[in-house]
Amino acid sequence: ARMRVAVVGAGVSGLTSTKCCLDEGLDPTCFEQSQDIGGLWRYTEHIEASRPSLYPSVISNTSKEMSAFSDFPYPEDFPVFLPNALLLDYLRRYTERFGLREHIKFGTTVVSVRKRPDFATTGQWDVVTEADGKQTSHVFDAVMVCSGNFSEPSLPLQSFPGIERFQGQYFHSRQYKHPDVFQGKRVLVVGMGNSGVDIAVEASRVAAKVTICTSRGSWVMSRVFEHGYPWDMVYNTRLMSLIRNNLPGPLSWELINRRMNQRFNHENYGLQPEKSCLVREPILNDDLPSYILTGRITIKPGVKEFKNNSVVFHNYPEEEPIDIVVFCTGYDVSFPFLEESVVKVENKHASLYKYVFPTHLQRPTLAVLGLIKPLGAIMPMIEMQARWVTRIFKGRRANMSSPMYQNTVQTRCILFGLSFDEVLKTEWLLYMDTLASFIGAKPSVLGLLCRDPRLALTIFFGPCTPYQYRLRGPGHWEGARQAILTQWDRILKPTRTRVPASKSSPCLSLLTVVGFLLLLAAVVCGF
């Protein structure tokens, strides 16, 4: 009999998990509490309990070539960065293309996932679901938790003295939909994540005054990077990753510091992060620097206390009058359907091997997907997690009860506990390569250098697009080579609309020479 797998949620993680189960010949059932797919990316005007909430202007932070599932490129006429409606459209096409819908049970909530009494030998789970007020019990051989971490808003009001006497309006960013609530108001945005800056920028077009307060500062990057190319296609290349990961710490900090301050000096704009915040993800926003420069937005330090109609900042003598506060204080991660003992989340840390498998289960038959915040595209990363997980469920690779796994857990618990505030410095490419090597899908640049030099050089110097992980190994896709060699054409197609698009990719003359020398050095040193 085929192994039965329960998939919780039909967002990005749930869809790709269902597909990977089918690829491995497993039998998935995906439970989705709402009536449609898309999770976070499905915009609804009203806010639904225990579902993520999106504001209509959300655009993806990663470019379409870097964000595609590895065997399903985006249509070439889609824009380079995707408005949420088009991203949802892509997910619908993916669902259609791989026949996923028939495996999804809509309007079904997972109430509980419990180990069966004979778990130590079978690894099976009792799963209770609810639909139309009726509960049903099922037995599954494995469970993939794909419920995301943007449903439980974190609003630590106790950290903001005086908030109880503040007479204006305040709400969590999850409640935000349209900027008209800020019309003519003095607005304070607390916290400096991507949503906070997006909301501040939108508010500043209609508000009387907008202030962002942040105790830690942050790097701000633009989607439009060097020479107008998408930031992640320049940043996430094998060459750049090799340089970043082999430099000593202080030098690495210096390199990033210089790179980030190239566009504008963060210190002059009140944004420079402390050195210890190197691990925080940068903010991607194309407007913030010019809005600070034109006085639409002011940056202040953290909140000391609230008064009736004003706020006092740390190290700032005068009060600032405000009418409305938006708390962009992030989300708590929670798995209400799991027992505490399965995934222990203690002060926002959970002990998960490679951020996926709970470290203390006797059998690796439950996996948590998509809980990682890399500096790079999340979709192909979750897909890679799902490819690895489904291989392990099938018992193909990586016997996780072996001493090797136990040792890794002991030594890596500290490194691989995951934190949602201090986003771990997860090097996107290293993590992708690590999981890919577990399943035998990591591309071999040196191997290709002899057989297909053009492809090898594109892979090494060019962006690390997800198609690289379909060149070999399980799930090998015939179209991968072609997708890699035409990646820049799909980036240029939607923007070169006035002149005919000629084939082109960024010229890397000097960098290519330096990189080639590095590659030779790496070969000599047994890279």
UniProtKB/TrEMBL annotation:
Gene Ontology cellular component list: endoplasmic reticulum membrane
Organism: Podargus strigoides (Tawny frogmouth)
Location of this chain's protein in the cell: Endoplasmic reticulum membrane
Swiss-Prot/TrEMBL cofactor(s): FAD
Alphabetized Pfam families for the sequence: FMO-like
Superkingdom per UniProt: Eukaryota
Similarity comment: Belongs to the FMO family.
Keywords: Endoplasmic reticulum, FAD, Flavoprotein, Membrane, Monooxygenase, NADP, Oxidoreductase, Transmembrane, Transmembrane helix
Protein name: Flavin-containing monooxygenase 1
Topological type in the membrane: Single-pass membrane protein
Enzyme class: oxidoreductase
Function according to Swiss-Prot or TrEMBL: Broad spectrum monooxygenase that catalyzes the oxygenation of a wide variety of nitrogen- and sulfur-containing compounds including xenobiotics. Catalyzes the S-oxygenation of hypotaurine to produce taurine, an organic osmolyte involved in cell volume regulation as well as a variety of cytoprotective and developmental processes.
